[in-house]
Design goal:
Strand content: 35-45%
Structural class: alpha+beta
Number of helices: 3
Radius of gyration: 15 Å
Helix content: 10-25%
Largest sheet: 9 strands, mixed
Number of domains: 1
CATH topology: 2,3-Dihydroxybiphenyl 1,2-Dioxygenase, domain 1
Bound molecules: cobalt (II) ion
CATH class: Alpha Beta
Distance between the termini: 12 Å
Shape: globular
Number of strands: 9
């Protein structure tokens, strides 16, 4: 069911300094910051040969990463995103396996304009998992 690793997302309290670490210390290719108000984040993409790292900073009042940063004030790994070919089929399989899908259980359009689901961390080795249909 799982395809490629699409991205690893890291929540950060200060996007500018996190971007500088990746660009200057780690000599990685980084994008310009992009505000995604509908997702409550500003994101910088770190472009690697085989995948991406997304640096996420809260945007607005109800950012979905605000609670995570309250618990992890210096930032940390927030989720991993795996690709699937058919998200409805993946959802059906996961529910059949007893896994919990966050929210209303239905895929929604994610930060890349493609259908995504988030899975409960307690069901997946303590890690928030995003599935994206590609
Ligand atoms: Co993501």
């Amino acid at each position: 069911m799982l395809g490629r690793l699409n991205h690893v997302a890291i929540a950060v309290p200060d996007l500018e300094s996190a971007t500088a670490v990746y660009r200057d210390t780690l000599a990685a290719r980084v994008s310009q910051p992009q505000e995604l108000p509908e997702h409550g984040v500003t994101v910088v993409f770190v472009e690697l040969d085989n995948t991406k790292v997304e640096l996420l900073e809260p945007l607005g009042e109800n950012s979905p990463i605000a609670a995570f940063l309250a618990k992890n004030p210096s930032g940390g790994m927030h989720h991993v995103c795996y690709e699937v070919a058919d998200i409805e089929e993946a959802a059906e399989r996961l529910v059949g396996q007893g896994a919990r899908i966050l929210g209303d259980g239905k895929p929604r359009i994610g930060a890349h304009g493609k259908p995504v689901l988030f899975l409960h961390p307690k069901d997946f080795a303590g890690t928030l998992v995003e599935l994206e249909q590609v």
